[in-house]
Amino acid sequence: MKNNVLKQGVLLIFLFVMLFTACGKTNEQARETDKNTNLILSGITDSDIEIPYVDILAKESEKKTVVSIPNGEEPEQVEIVGVSLEDILADYGIDFADFSLVRGIAGDGYEIDIPAEVFLNGGMYLIWEQDGKPLEPQQESVRIAVDGHRSMYWVSNLIELKFVFGAVEKDITKSGEKPGRIVFLDAASAMLEQHDITYYDAVDSGIEVKDLFSQYQITENKRAEIMAVDELSKTEELDLLNQGYFKMTGKDAPLFMSPELPKGLHIKEILSLVCGDTAFVSEQSLFAASDTISLADVADCVGLIADKYLITGADGYSVEVEKDVLITGELIMFETGRYAAGFDNDFSAYNVKDVLTIQAMDITETGKSD
Amino acid sequence: MSINKRFAHVVILMVLMVLMFIFIILNTGYSYRDEIISMGYGNPEVLRKYHTDKITNTFICPTGEFVQIVQTKGYHDGLVFAVVIKGNEIADVVILAHNESKDYGEHVTKQWFLDRLKLKTDELLNIAILSKEKENDVVAITGATITSQAVVVGVNDCIINYRRYLNEK
């Protein structure tokens, strides 16, 4: 009887030990299962290519030092261990150079488009170690690393790479056409229907992009080239832009955003957006970059080059100015938040309140004339 | 060592393990109670009758607050929060645990978001993605609609459960 009780006691302890051991095993097995899932490569063939993460991790790895550029901070050197995406694609007979765009998609919903000029200039890697440490659990199984480019491209917890074939159609400015007009974004926005936009803890104000594009007949082009204050340059589909808003007040304004789009596709502090013959330029972003804004510099910056310009205010008042006069002009910001085109005393007759557009009247180089 | 001594050791060991197990269970149960006490609502009474698959703990506080602990899934598993209802208002929502993504769903703990949930319980809450238009709209966290939706659905479950409590009181 006593022996039986003893056996039962030992058995019970054994069961407890087994239970705890089993728990440990379960975690390990779960981790292993995660690693057994696949990275999806889409857009290459009719069906998706699925590569098990274990196969990627089993490849002969490279260890190298690359440069990452965090948003608004100095570039930093990062030591990575991983494999070149070019090598992985080569295993499937795919040439990396055939693509114009790769969209990196993370498990948490983050998505970002990586253009060819980024991934072909510097190299793109799938990494599993960074600065001598394995990726954090939430970053596993692999992370993108793009040498010499912004850290926003370093998508963690990568689950899919969506490829776009062929060269991007360069219809931003048709056949090298220079923009024929500048539309000042803040002034133009103020004339459109305003929407409350909740952005984190603030309620800001903004406009629908489609309203702006409709107002300025931006319909023929498919893409726009966007430049941000921090020199981020991005080409974006008009179809996508038309789904969203420009938040014109508060933090990160002007901000392209849409609640329907992943945050990785939002664009902060837009400086300019060039589409066809129109260049939208944000006054608030100009002043974020410099205290003094020369009108001639703004025109040069977007390639608006002419002998004569038509400057128009929000109230419809307009003046024609010669190239030599434009050089003396500045964009002036008032405390009320409104902007004007101001010229020195000799040309003060050209001053325009609430300046809305600057139009080239007689383009000297390529492009259309007015 | 005699069989008797071995037997005694095994029994003691087993008793200790059972006690430890009971201690862990009780301690887990009491942690939410402690949390509620730390929130300043006094020592609450447990109302097991109102537990559901998502609402794992319900309490009534001496000061009248009906507190429910919700366990749900945001973008990731493990989103746990307390919903405090008093009268016909959501008095407080406190995030107790989460695994939401950095710089996205992690904002679920920010007071500016939790304050958006402090609304009347006369109607269920709606998730709004851009701006608040109706009284019971809760504007989602920028870039974290799924997490925000999970919280709103959890709070709505609590409102429905609270109505049941009021009917049966």
Could you explain how this protein is built, in words?
The complex is a heterodimer of chains A (about 375) and B (about 170). Chain A contains ten helices and 27 strands. Chain A is α+β, with helices and mostly antiparallel strands and about 375 residues long. Chain A folds into two domains: about 40-165, Sulfite Oxidase, Chain A, domain 2 (Alpha-Beta Complex), CATH 3.90.420; about 175-360, no CATH class. In chain A, the strands form five sheets. Chain A has an eight-stranded mixed beta sheet. In chain A, a hairpin with a 2-residue loop joins strand 19 (about 270-275) and strand 20 (about 280). The longest helix of chain A is centred in the first third of the chain and has 35 residues, at about 1-35. Chain A is elongated and about 110 Å long. Residues about 20-35, about 165-175 and about 365-370 of chain A have low confidence and may be disordered. Chain B is an alpha+beta fold and about 170 residues long. Chain B has one domain (about 45-170). In chain B, about 40% of the residues lie in helices and about 20% in strands. Chain B is built from three helices and seven strands. Chain B has helices at about 5-40, 110-115, 145-169, and strands at about 45, 55-60, 65-70, 80-85, 90-95, 125-130, 135-140. In chain B, strands 1-2-3-4-5 form a five-stranded antiparallel beta sheet, with helices on both faces. In chain B, strands 6-7 form a two-stranded parallel ribbon. In chain B, strand 1 (about 45) and strand 2 form a beta hairpin. The interface of A and B includes residues 2, 5 and 257 of A.
Strand and helix layout:
The complex is a heterodimer of chains A (370) and B (169).
Chain A: H1 2-36, E1 38-42, E2 49-52, H2 53-58, E3 62-69, E4 76-84, H3 85-91, E5 99-106, E6 111-115, H4 116-119, E7 124-130, E8 133-134, E9 143-146, E10 149-150, E11 158-165, E12 181-184, H5 185-190, E13 195-199, E14 202-208, H6 209-215, E15 223-228, E16 233-237, H7 238-241, E17 245-247, E18 255-257, E19 270-275, E20 278-281, H8 283-289, E21 293-294, H9 295-302, E22 308-313, E23 318-322, H10 323-326, E24 330-333, E25 339-342, E26 352-353, E27 355-360
Chain B: H1 3-38, E1 45-46, E2 55-60, E3 66-72, E4 79-86, E5 89-97, H2 111-115, E6 126-128, E7 137-139, H3 145-168
Parallel strand pairs in B: 6-7
Antiparallel strand pairs in B: 1-2, 2-3, 3-4, 4-5
